Amino acid sequence: MRTSEFDPVLLAVLSSGFEGIVREMSDTLLRAGRSSVINMARDFSCSILTAQNEVLALAEGIPVHVTGSGLLGEAMSRLHDDIRPGDAFLHNDPYNGNSHAADHSILVPVFVDGEHLFTAVTKAHQADAGNASPTTYAPAARDVYEEGALIFPCVRVQRDGADVDDVIRMCRARIRVPDQWYGDYLGMVGSARIAERRIQRLAERYGAAALKEFVGAWLDYSERRMAQAIRTLPAFDIAASATHDPFVGTAPEGLELSARLRVFPEDARVVVDLTENPDNLPNGLNLTEATASSAALTGVLASLAQEVPVNSGTFRRVEVRLREGCVAGIPRFPASCSVATTNVADRIIAMIQRAFAAAEDGFGASEGGLGQPPAKGVISGTDQRTGKRFVNQLLVGAQGGPATAFVDGWPTYHRPVADALLYHDSVEIDEQRYPIVIRERRLLPRTGGHGRRCGGQATRVTIEPRFGPLTITYAVEGRLNPPRGVRGGRDAQAAGAQLFAESGQELEIPQVAVVEIEMGQRLVSTSTGGAGYGSPLEREVDLVASDVIEGRLSEEMAVEIYGVSISRGVVDHGATSLRRAQASETR
Amino acid sequence: MSQTFAEGRDTYERESSGRFRISVDTGGTFTDVVISDERGEMSVGKAFTTYGRIFDGFIEAVGRAAATWRADAAHLLRNADSIIYATTHATNAVVTGKTARTGLITTKGFEDTLFYREGGRIGAFNARAAYPGPYVPRRLTFGAAERISAEGEVLEQLRDDELDRLRREIGEAGVEAVGVALLWSISNPIHEARIAEMLRDAFPDLPYSLSHEVNPIIREYRRASSVAIDASLKPLMKQHFEGLARDLEAAGFTGQCLVVTSEGGVQDLDSVASKPLLAVNSGPSMAPLAGASFAPTAQDVVVCDIGGTTFDVSLVEGGRLRHTRELWLGEPFIGELGGLASVAVKSVGSGGGSIARIDPGGLITVGPDSAGSTPGPAAYGKGGEEATVTDAAVVLGYLDPAAVADSFTLCLDKAEAVVAAKVGQPLDKTPEGASTAILKVAATRSAAAARQAVLEQGVDPRGSTVVACGGAGPLLGCFIADELEAHRVVIPSNAGVLAAYGAHNADILTEFNSPLAMSSAKPDLDRLQDALADITSRCAEFAGRFDTTIENVRVEYFVEARYPSQGWEIRVALGERFGASAPDIACAAARFHSEHEKRNGAADTGSEVEFVSWGARVSIRRHERTPRTGSGADGADVSPPRMAVASFDGVARQTPRYHGANLAPGWSTDGPAIIDESTTTVVVPPGWRAARRTDGSYVVDRTGREGNHEDV
To answer: What is the structure's pLDDT at B404?
Structure first.
């Protein structure tokens, strides 16, 4: 095989150098971040762009951030002709390349010998963005005005390394938890400045010319790896579809979504076409250019049988077709994109993974758990113990993950846009931090879809106020359209939110809501399981037996669904073979 | 040097040389011992670890070291004051699942705590990564209807009928040990205590562990994991330690037996037997301490312990080790978590056996997979067909096929062939060129891991001192230091038995902590006063158990703290004097701000600080025993080095090879030079200068100039 002309040793050394830099950016922000969205949900990304605003290096982070930063850099280049060392920009404009208004991005241009060679980008979801309601997820907002976030279309927030106080004051005046926001801001700027110093050090050591050449060589290398991965795929052309549960602003039967997926192994090319989706909706579900393309790329990358570097070189092999004014495309002002990083993006990723699996066993995955049940909602109120206001995201229960051809779904999966990279809260930390008592957090047996590989189980969490009323904002999805199984795997079980009075009587609450919980009431949050992959009759008997022994499956279901006869933990192998043979015939 | 290792003195003098101290490190393959006497004689011995009965390998290794005193092992044991024992037994049992059948009692509704862990994974998009089961299976986990609040109030009583039910279920489950981890037992242990009482009554011989005792920290998963692991080890480790004690007693040993813990010190055998969690992860805790002792004046020491498959890196700052509660056994996030504040050591898959490949895109990679010891590198001639770091070192002339002793020889032809085939040909390079590339990438990768580990602690490795140990450390040390921009590399004299050497002089220590949360803006000084008094008296009680004087006891306070709403605490040292006063609180907050600034690059000095847990580490210094010399040479018998070709930066040069055994303290040379030691090879590249010190270690400094060395 021919390799590029660039010195292969320097290629390895410099790629490892940039990888180390983005990891350091990321570690720093994780430790320094104030809001749980950053330090628990890891809802942030750190990356380095080239002078041409291509993504060169990206720290491991949640998938929805995969491609976004290139568009941010383009906005910076377009809007500013006086960029100089010491600058930093704050950008959260959804119509100018950002993911959604709640993600604040910090861009620090990196100069080497007076030349702007790279840009360090740190993007993080904020606990509060000054929205109309105390949540950064406003699916019901009719437009960006009703959503209410402060929008910063790539404004200069530092000059000569010092804050532009005007901008800081604007944020502090409007964001509900100004100190927490400022702490996060410091962490983000710190993270980007670290990259600036480290890149300059790398340039001193190896020379600016070598870094410039490296950029091209590394992106070419990544493209080659991606091309090789695509050549192992089957050729196919599949129209995938899914239905998002009805929300405010959708049709009563929900939102029909689709993706046409074409794989051309010979050309080593994948085309994802999202243009057939409906026009922008009068709610917060609309995707942005960044999240629509990230969702498409994530779906493809998650379905490959091998890992590839993730950068703009890799992306050259995937063509994502988007349409302006489309719910899963490029938003037309003033459409709200408040939940652009989650709901529709989740559905797109899940349907692409499922399409790959449908094309050939060994690729893709079933659909994983979706939505934001109360245990992952935004909690707010006043803590009677301290008299202080709080707004933060809970992450106390996860969804069940999708099954792949090889493994059962993870119980710590969060949603397709986040995979299982998120941490979850300690119950004790949450009770120390918020005036609540968590009565249970348990796995729900039989909630993951059955299959040769089973979906991850769902989690139920019960929350009570401890000293006085508080508010939880959430948006259950996948209740009417639960995650779907693939290749004979079963669908997952639905999620939900329930409120109970002290008497035990269930009170009516919507599934997408801002709910005030009174003393004595209990809010029960049930997440969604993941769906199954392959026929349950193909699941190894030992695994079925262990599911029964560990209480994940009843003996009745073992027989009915899996064809495994088991009594008091002992498998009847004769009866099992017979039953499985019969079931296969009737299939 | 006037006095050296052994020769020339009579037996009587040796026997009168006083009480012996013996430290032993039983590793997976070898048992290492270090023995010293009161006059500063020191000797080392090595034998294969004997799994059936640890004592057999131990006594064999002692016997080898005993030759220094012309005595036998029995004599040394009879005349020993103390034996310090480091064992991987507990760690191995946890990793391989060979522990007791253990039950776990949790608060009802939270039986899946161990299953969930804390979330997170490495690498999205991995379709083959399986989620592991819980440390204690769900069928052996029992929920107790009870509830304590964050503030310690009883929200739901643990009723008698609930205790009866637990008693019945535990009895039926047939478990060999029980862990108890209830929510908020750290705020109010009453329910854990009641369950303990029930267990003692109903099952007098059943070992149990309580979470508020084993590891009183906030976060239910960490406490549950600590207590489950601790309980699961109790039957096994009790038997193990009792067996060892019996064997030692039978051999006539009457001294004190100390055991190495993950906290970076030692404790008496009974304490560790009653809390075996202390022995988990104790393996890597000694090398940092020992390594740094060879660079006592350096501020920042990066200890690089490189073996065949693993690279362990740790930071020692001003002689102080760093600690972490996040040392996973197995893969981070999905392995098992001991949860004690353990010596912070980062492990990556990189070593002499790391495999070099050209990936499908044309990129050269080295590791993390390794050829291990079988078949091992191709140069071992045991059927290895992958190109490894060791093979590259053979091709470059760093490892000399002729110089390696007894057990096996290195085969240059095989190394050259495999490097050419696997790396040279795809890259269009000669075997030498390919080998240079392999070492460069291996050093870059190791340095990247080291840099990350050190930066996490807020220290920039530039200008630090690298201590290189382990079989492959001295080979790669200067190359890694180059990448880190460190200017000095120290190769310890006992590089091959460093853990046992560290254990030899380690402090007796432990720590106590009290999870008392408060804000710097509104501190509760009364409760803090009580907590500190309790911690201090427990430290005093601990110290009182050992025969020592007050000057040797040190109590150092610390606090784990965060900014409001941060997810993770950092540990801040508070010094040896700390009280519950407003100025002390202000001082603690100031220390937190500066530590946060150091580690995370920013401080928010206007913000209040949330203190989460207060504690103290009590340590008892033992009389230090260091070798008067580690070198067998006195400078009188210096044979000239052999000249051989070695390649540096693509240039083949005539390079002197020295026998370490012939090099006296004070000896020095400019690179390039290579020194063959019995268990390792020191490579001194051009631009570095090596010198031997009186303790037998080497210090290698960057000079930046090409060597114009004279052959000695």
So the answer is: 53
The residues facing A423 across adjacent strands are B119
Q: Distance (Å) from the C-alpha of residue B454 to the closest C-alpha of chain A?
A: 11
Mean pLDDT taken over chain A: 93
State yes or no: pLDDT of B6 exceeds 60: no
Q: Report whether pLDDT(B2) > 60.
A: no
Check residue B253 and give its pLDDT. 95
Does residue B629 have a pLDDT over 70? no
First to last CA, chain A: 48
pLDDT in tens, A144-186: 999 999 999 999 999 999 999 999 999 999 998 898 899 899 9
Which chain A residue's Cα is nearest to B597?
A32
Strands A269-273 and A255-264 turn out to be antiparallel
Paired residues of A239 in beta bridges: A260
What the block records as the tokens of B213 is 């005792």
A337: exposed, middle or buried (Cβ count in 10 Å: 0-12, 13-18, 19+): buried
E strand residue ranges, A2-72: 44-50, 55-58
C-beta pairs of B653-661 under 8 Å, 24+ apart in sequence: B653/B686, B655/B397, B656/B709, B656/B711, B657/B400, B657/B403, B658/B712, B660/B631, B661/B631, B661/B632, B661/B633
Residue with tokens 């902590």: B513
Mode of pairing for the β-strands spanning B668-670 and B364-370:
unpaired
Give the model's pLDDT for residue A219: 97
Q: Which of A353, A476, A444, A440 is nearest to A404 (CA)?
A: A353
| B58 and A CB contact within 8 Å | no
Average confidence (pLDDT) over B666-694: 92
**Beta-strand pair B177-181/A566-567:** unpaired
Closest of B352, B362, B209 to residue B683, by C-alpha = B352
Task: Give dist(CA B68, CA B481) in Å, integer.
Answer: 36
Q: How far is CA B529 from CA A152, B98, B613, in A?
A: 49, 43, 13
- Share the mean pLDDT of chain B: 89
Strand partners of residue B343: B323
Inform me whether the C-beta atom of residue B347 falls under 8 Å from chain A C-beta atoms: no
The answer to whether B362 contacts A408, with C-beta atoms less than 8 Å apart, is no
- Helix and strand counts by DSSP (H, E) for chain B: 19, 37
Judge: A426–B359 Cβ closer than 8 Å, yes or no.
no
